[in-house]
Amino acid sequence: MFQIPEFSEVQKRAVYIVLASSVAVGSLFVTLSQGKASTPKPMLVLPSVSTKPSVLPTVVVDVAGKVLHPGVYALPQGSRAIDAIKAAGNQLKGVLLTDINLAEIVSDGEQIVVGAPAKVVSASKSKSSSIAKNGKTLVNINTASAAALQVLKGIGPVTAQKVVAYRKANGKFTLISDFKKASGMGAARFNAISSQLRL
After folding, report:
1. Residues of the domain holding 96
2. How many CB atoms lie within 10 A of CB 144?
3. Of 142, 140, 146, which is closest to residue 128 (Cα–Cα)?
4. 10 Å Cβ neighbour count for 136?
């Protein structure tokens, strides 16, 4: 019959220490294994792609006068006077557009008046113009309103507004020849009206 050997007190302590060490190492190994398994993997974050369409810059134009639908219209930047008139339903039947430069690029806040009669400014009522001896109207290019500028040949509402805008941005004209610097004022047009201009 097999007999269990008796261990001395020192041997028993040694066995206990070995068993305790084995349990401790095993527990440590299990804990580390679970920690590695539970560590979340880093997620790949992709940059968000905007789905909003790009908005083109616009200008707001007031189309008034003899058009089918007068009103304020937002047009793409770079639009011309003819585009603004088309947006308002075109001119009424029998109305001519010869006083408007249809090819001019419109600016934000501009007003286009279709079919407006040419306004003659009285010398006695306006400081911006006076009647010359040859019967032509002299216009003060520093004080004339957009309406007063339209008495000049070839200057319609669009060009007149651009002259006023140029004057507001750059100050008064110091020379009559500086009038050519205003948008829409070419050399030929300036030469045709230069005898009517004054400071």
Report:
1. 56-116
2. 26
3. 140
4. 14
Give how many domains the chain has, as a whole number. 2
How far is Cα 131 from Cα 125, in angstroms, rounded to an integer? 12
Residue with tokens 């007003």: 111
Pair 100, 114: CB distance under 8 Å: yes
Same domain for 87 and 151, yes or no, is: no
**pTM to 2 decimals?**
0.38
Report the SS3 class of residue 54.
coil
**Same-domain check for residues 166 and 106:** no
CATH number of the domain bearing residue 169? 1.10.150.320
H-type alpha helices, the chain: 9-38, 81-87, 146-149, 157-170, 187-193
Q: How far apart are CA 199 and CA 190, in angstroms?
A: 15
Q: Report the C-alpha gap between 23 and 31 in whole angstroms.
A: 12
**pLDDT tens digit string along 31-83?**
766 655 555 556 665 656 555 556 679 989 889 888 999 999 999 999 999 99
Q: Residues 131, 108: one domain? A: no
Please answer whether residues 67 and 82 qualify as being in contact, where contact means their C-beta atoms are separated by less than 8 angstroms. Answer: no
Instruction: Choose the final residue of a domain: 75, 96, 116.
Output: 116
Question: How many CA atoms lie less than 13 Å away from 111 in the CB half-sphere?
Answer: 11
- For residue range 92-126, list pLDDT tens digits in order: 988 888 878 888 888 888 888 888 654 444 433 44
Q: Is 106:84 a contact under the CB 8 Å cutoff?
A: yes
